[in-house]
Amino acid sequence: MKIILIGSGNVGKEVEKVLAENGIPVELVVRSSGVYSKGSFIDGNENFAKYVDAGSVLFISVPSRGDGSEMLHYYVESLALGARIVTCEKAVLAHHFELVQEFKERIRYSATVGGNSGILPAVSDYRGAITEIKAVINGTLNYVSGALSQKRAEDDIFRDVVSRGFTDQGPRNLREVFQNELKDVAYKTAILANHSGMYEKVFTPEDVQTEAYKENTRCAVVLSKEGIRAGFLSFEDKSWFPSGVNNCICINGEKVAEGPGAGGRATAERMFKDFQGIVRDGAHDVTISR
Ligand SMILES: NC(=O)c1ccc[n+]([C@@H]2O[C@H](COP(=O)([O-])OP(=O)(O)OC[C@H]3O[C@@H](n4cnc5c(N)ncnc54)[C@H](OP(=O)(O)O)[C@@H]3O)[C@@H](O)[C@H]2O)c1
Question: Are residues 160 and 238 in the same domain?
């Protein structure tokens, strides 16, 4: 089996460590600057497919950007060559869920929603008809909306999320954090909705209207037969919300998973669980279950 990492940032580096801890060597690393073997440049990254075959497993942890078109070729070319994929990248999956439907035996993506909290596996494992999903899928906005409901000042919360690394360096204030993170909510909502099997329609992030922040709201997603609600929503009962930056999911009113929603190590550990599932004959940690 040939292990190839596509992207070697916060998550990719942790994937490499988790694999090393389990005695699994990485053969190639693909960066934006090219294909690397044992730290040395060997080819341009436009030629990455030359190194992929049916025995390859790709760990994809490149940035989730726009409509995914920048990274789509990594998926399409590898799957066409018979390779298997474990990914935490969201933009391609959110816009091209047909790849999951077509290649469901060869693609695992449980780290795309909820990091290592097990949100997508909990949906796969749920027995019985799902009529409602309530989930917290963005740890940063869970933290921020929890802090705002405790009447903390916006500037103070902003400094807090930046200094703790809960958001990228880019945003200049809390409003910009909302804008960035709500895009992430839309990606994850589309993936969760498609994965849930609750809808005939295949959703993309453009179908997800995210509600802007209003006082006394919390950031969450609610999926029901009536449709999808996402962003800052009002809830009478807020007792099910996780603390801090955790994520969680309730199915038909019952909490079935909660845990760390992000972080390089947590995400890499979830990807490793997907990897174990994909290499185990006939067993699938995360497949579209319905
Ligand atoms: N961090 C988390 O907690 C978390 C949790 C769940 C999911 N995710 C998802 O995981 C992905 C990676 O997140 P991250 O935090 O690891 O981001 P990151 O630190 O920015 O790493 C992304 C890496 O991808 C490389 N890259 C950029 N363009 C590339 C290209 N065209 N081909 C190959 N490599 C390319 C970048 O390095 P070079 O430009 O130097 O090659 C960079 O090292 C994102 O899609 C994110 O949404 C992250």
Answer: yes
Q: Say yes or no: 256 and 274 in one domain.
A: no
pLDDT at 280: 87
Q: What pLDDT is stored for residue 287 in this prediction?
A: 44
Let me know whether 133 and 246 are in one domain: yes
Confidence of residue 286 (pLDDT cuts 50, 70, 90): very low
Residues with Cβ within 8 Å of 42's Cβ and at least 6 positions away in sequence, in order, are 28, 34, 35, 36
- pTM, 2 dp: 0.94
Q: Are 146 and 201 within one domain?
A: yes
pLDDT digits (tens, 9 = 90+) for 102-125: 999 999 999 999 988 999 999 999
The CATH number of residue 197's host domain is 3.30.360.10
Taking the centre of ligand 1 as the mean of its atom positions, its distance from the CA of residue 11, in whole angstroms, is 7
Residues with CB under 6 A from ligand 1: 6-12, 30-33, 45, 61-64, 88-90, 111, 115, 262-264, 267
Q: What is the rounded distance in angstroms from the CA atom of residue 16 to the CA atom of residue 267?
A: 12
Q: How many domains are there within the chain?
A: 2
Beta-strand runs (E) in 91-144: 107-108, 132-136
Q: Are residues 129 and 239 in the same domain?
A: yes
Report the nearest-CA residue for atom 47 of ligand 1.
64
Q: Which domain holds residue 90?
A: 2-113+265-279
Report the residue among 26, 77, 267 best suited for mutation to probe ligand 1: largest number of ligand atoms under 8 A from its CB: 267
Pocket test for ligand 1, best of 59, 61, 92 (most atoms within 8 A of CB): 61
pLDDT per residue over 156-195, tens digit each? 999 998 888 787 778 899 999 999 999 999 999 999 999 9
Ligand 1 atom at minimum distance from 263 CA = 3
Looking at the fold, whether 98 and 176 belong to one and the same domain comes out as: no
Q: Which residues contact 285 (CB under 8 A, 6 or more apart)?
A: 108, 110, 121, 124, 273, 274, 276, 277, 278
